[in-house]
Backbone:
C-alpha cells in the first residue's frame, strides 16, 4: 500500500470583514459588509452577523441594505487585505514549500513531506491555525484530507475557526451524505440537471454508472463523477501559471445600439487592463466573445507582435474584432488577453532599470492604486461615468 498524500486547505473566515473588525474593534459583533459601494456594487464579504441576516457575497449591495439596514457598509481596502494575506501565506510556507494560493485568503498545502519535521497533518493544521491567529489576530478554517477536493470541502465544514479532518479510509463516509451543491466546481445548471434525475447527495451521483453521466453531461459530468467517487489525484501546484486574464458580463437587459456596446467594451477593457497590470502581465493575443439574445456565441482573436496591458489598446482592438456581420441584440460581451511571452508567477520588482516609466504607464498605475483604495468606483475614463446599469 502506498502511503497517502496529505493536503490541507486553509480558508480565512469572512476575510475582508474580519480585517475591518480587526482594524476597528468597535465593529465587533456587528453586521459588517464589505463591497463595492457604487450604484450596482455587490457584496465582497459579509461578517457572520450579516450572514445571519441573509447577506452573502455576490449579493447586490442594494439588496443587502434592504435585508440588513443596520449593517455597517465599508469599501474594499485591497491593499490592506494584501498586507495581511502576505503574513498568512508566509505562515503557510513555514510548514511546506508546496503552497498553492487560490486567492488572497485561501490556499492548498501539500504537507506530505513535512510530517517528519512537524508531526501529523492534523497537528500541522492546528499549528498553522495557532500561528495565523497569534500573528494576525484572525481565524482560519482548515480541512485536512488525502485529496484536494476533500480538503476543500472539509475546510468549509465547520466555519468559522474550524478544523475538520477526513481520515484515510473515511473519504466516502464523509463525502457521500453531503448534498450535490458541495461538490467543488458544480455549476447551478448542472446541479439542477442532476436534481432533475432525482439525485440528492454526492453518494447518489457516485453510484450512477459513469456511462450514463457522460452521455448526459459530457466531460464535465465525468469530472464530477470522479470527484463524487473520491478519485482526485490533482497535485498542489505551488506556482499557479496564469494562462489568460479576462472579464465578461451577462446583461440583465440585452444591449443593442453601437454606443452602448462600445461603452460596455470600454468598461471591460478597463477591467482587463487593470487585472493584467495587477499581475504584471502583458499578453500578445486579445480575444472578444459575444453572445446574442438567441444564445449564439462568437469569438474573434487577434495576435500582436508586441504584448499589451493598456485598456485603450485593448478597446481599440476589440472594436476592430467586433463581428459587424452578426446580429444582436447582445446578451453577453467578454474580453480576454492571453499568450504571455514571459510568464511571471511571482510579481517581480524591476531592480535594474531606472525608475522611469512612460507617462501613460504612470497614469495607469496611479489609477490602479486609487481604484484599489476606493473600490471600483474610484477613477475611470470619463466616458464610463454615465454607464447605464446593465450588469447583473
Ligand atoms: Mg475565506
Residues:
Amino acid at each position: 500500500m502506498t502511503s497517502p498524500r496529505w493536503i490541507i486547505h486553509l480558508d480565512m473566515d469572512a476575510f475582508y470583514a474580519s480585517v475591518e473588525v480587526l482594524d476597528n474593534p468597535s465593529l465587533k459583533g456587528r453586521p459588517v459588509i464589505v463591497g463595492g459601494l457604487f450604484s450596482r456594487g455587490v457584496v465582497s464579504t459579509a461578517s457572520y452577523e450579516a450572514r445571519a441576516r441573509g447577506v452573502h457575497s455576490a449579493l447586490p449591495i442594494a439588496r443587502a441594505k434592504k435585508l440588513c439596514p443596520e449593517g455597517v457598509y465599508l469599501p474594499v481596502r485591497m491593499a490592506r487585505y494584501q498586507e495581511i494575506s502576505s503574513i498568512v501565506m508566509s505562515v503557510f510556507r513555514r510548514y511546506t514549500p508546496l503552497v498553492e494560493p487560490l486567492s488572497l485568503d485561501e490556499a492548498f498545502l501539500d504537507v506530505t513531506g513535512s510530517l517528519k519535521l512537524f508531526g501529523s497533518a492534523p497537528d500541522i493544521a492546528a499549528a498553522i491555525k495557532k500561528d495565523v491567529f497569534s500573528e494576525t489576530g484572525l481565524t482560519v478554517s482548515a480541512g485536512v484530507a488525502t485529496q484536494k477536493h476533500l480538503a476543500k470541502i472539509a475546510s468549509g465544514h465547520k466555519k468559522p475557526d474550524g478544523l475538520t479532518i477526513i481520515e484515510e479510509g473515511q473519504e466516502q463516509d464523509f463525502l457521500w451524505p453531503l448534498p450535490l451543491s458541495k461538490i467543488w466546481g458544480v455549476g447551478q445548471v448542472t446541479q439542477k440537471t442532476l436534481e432533475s434525475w432525482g439525485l440528492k447527495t454526492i453518494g447518489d451521483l457516485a453510484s450512477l454508472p459513469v456511462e450514463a453521466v457522460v452521455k448526459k453531461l459530457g466531460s464535465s459530468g465525468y469530472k464530477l463523477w470522479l470527484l463524487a467517487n473520491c478519485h482526485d489525484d490533482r497535485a498542489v501546484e505551488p506556482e499557479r501559471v496564469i494562462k489568460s486574464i479576462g472579464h465578461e458580463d451577462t446583461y440583465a437587459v440585452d444591449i443593442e445600439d453601437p454606443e452602448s456596446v462600445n461603452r460596455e467594451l470600454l468598461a471591460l477593457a478597463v477591467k482587463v487592463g487593470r487585472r493584467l497590470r495587477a499581475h504584471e502581465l502583458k499578453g500578445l493575443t486579445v480575444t472578444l466573445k459575444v453572445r446574442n439574445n438567441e444564445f449564439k456565441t462568437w469569438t474573434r482573436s487577434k495576435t500582436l507582435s508586441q504584448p499589451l496591458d493598456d485598456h485603450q489598446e485593448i478597446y481599440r482592438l476589440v472594436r476592430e474584432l467586433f463581428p459587424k456581420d452578426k446580429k444582436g441584440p447582445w446578451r453577453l460581451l467578454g474580453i480576454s488577453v492571453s499568450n504571455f511571452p514571459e510568464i511571471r508567477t511571482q510579481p517581480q520588482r524591476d531592480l535594474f532599470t531606472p525608475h522611469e516609466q512612460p507617462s501613460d504607464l504612470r497614469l495607469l498605475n496611479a489609477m490602479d492604486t486609487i481604484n484599489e483604495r476606493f473600490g471600483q468606483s474610484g477613477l475611470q475614463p470619463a466616458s464610463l461615468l454615465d454607464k447605464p446599469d446593465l450588469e447583473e
User: Anything to note?
Assistant: The two ends are 51 Å apart (CA to CA). Confidence is low (pLDDT under 50) at residues 343-359, 373-378, 384-392.
